[in-house]
From TrEMBL:
It comes from the Eukaryota. This is Transferrin. It comes from Musca domestica (House fly). InterPro entries: Transferrin-like_dom. The lineage of its organism: Eukaryota, Metazoa, Ecdysozoa, Arthropoda, Hexapoda. SMART domains: TR_FER. Residues 1-114, 120-369 form the Transferrin-like domain. One of its GO terms (biological process) is iron ion transport. GO terms for cellular component: early endosome; extracellular space; plasma membrane; recycling endosome. It holds the Pfam family Transferrin.
Amino acid sequence: MIPGVEAEGDPTDFEYLCEDGSRRPLDGPACSWAQRPWTGYISNSEAVKGEQQFHNLQDRLEKFFENGLHAENKEAAAHLLINENAVYHKKAEAVDPQQYLEKAGYKDVIERDGSALRKMKMCVQSDIEFQKCNSMRRAAYSRDIRPEMECLKEENCIAAVAECKADMVAIQADHYKPARESKLQPVVYEAYAENDIYVVVIDPALTRDDQNKKPVYYNANDERQRKAVAYLNLMRGSPDCNAQPGEEQSLLIANVKDLGEHKNKQLLCPNGERKPVSEWQLCNFEINLPNAVFIRDSMTHVEQETLKHLFISLSDKFGKSGKLSDVFQLFGSYTPNDNNVLFSNDAVEFITELKNKTPNEELYQRLGC
């Protein structure tokens, strides 16, 4: 039955057993016990109104598909769900999406939850968080990410998880400590892009004395920059985490992505040394803890690993580099007016261990901010 491969037995001695109990010979069409809805193109009804319009659109899509197969930008083609293992197949007539899914047994096969685990409840506090949580739940379920999620709104989510009313909650840096005190632990963390960290830029002409006294130029509305300044002040012996921004830019907080604007300056490292801007990995002042998903520390090992898998799968599909980020954005603005909902706009993925070793919970608490 496979081209180029000789069968070991006689095909006439075997038959296909069909779902309705009937049988078919092996040299005829096969019986499908578990059909699936294959990737297809959806159009509005006006574009396929009439046989000629329908066939014209099919011809255009076929050319589009063939061009995608031979495109140099394989990543862009993959994002459009075009790959060399797929084939383009024309239908005799347009099919209603709901009828297509029903005929393919979507509810019986794809939507069946074979997991033995119960639904995992995520606790949120605000209405907009509840909306995003449900959007995430629907996107995850439709893409076969398991276990299934459920969203729960409570005033105190740390208490809700601790009391088993919920299973997980997204925690910001300033709530790590009360979460730990309630016997919760992180299961995944947000991660930024490798070059998305904050450093201290210094004018080479600045004296050592001024280096320890000079007000720092920074954006007071940026939480990560405020924490970087607090860390610098701690290193300088003046643990003031609410210092007003300076007016001069001879000592400033900058993101590594913007170091091209400071080629003629140097970096000040936490140990007091100065380095060229090209050695930013050695002068990390990113001390702010990322948002993390916390769970009860009493959860079984299987439950913990299952939740890790859940959020890593969400990240792989809906993170900044995910192929389905156009379906649902895990990170970034939830609406034009709603930023940092559940997770940071600037995050790109979830990780199970912090890559940036500079921030730690003990040091963060010492800042006293």
